[in-house]
Here is the input.
Amino acid sequence: MNVLIVEDESHTALLLQETKNPLQINISSTEGFYVSVCNNIQAKIGDNSSTGMGLELLRRRYELMNIEHGLNFNHTPEQFCIQLKLL
Here is the structure.
């Protein structure tokens, strides 16, 4: 879960002077033994390029453990949510 929080921070405008709408992170459990982490979308000022490696590394870790559907995510213009299967 720490990886997800760090990812949220790295893709978000965190400084108060950068945004009037602070980062909100919601962590909950879901049906089917998943933990869900959702955050509101905050565009960073300046370089907001992403390699997508954070999600890819998580997906590969579940794949190496032969766990199907270990990582699910949903992205809208307002919110990003990811669900991780609990081990």
Observations:
- Residues 53-64 form the longest helix (12 residues).
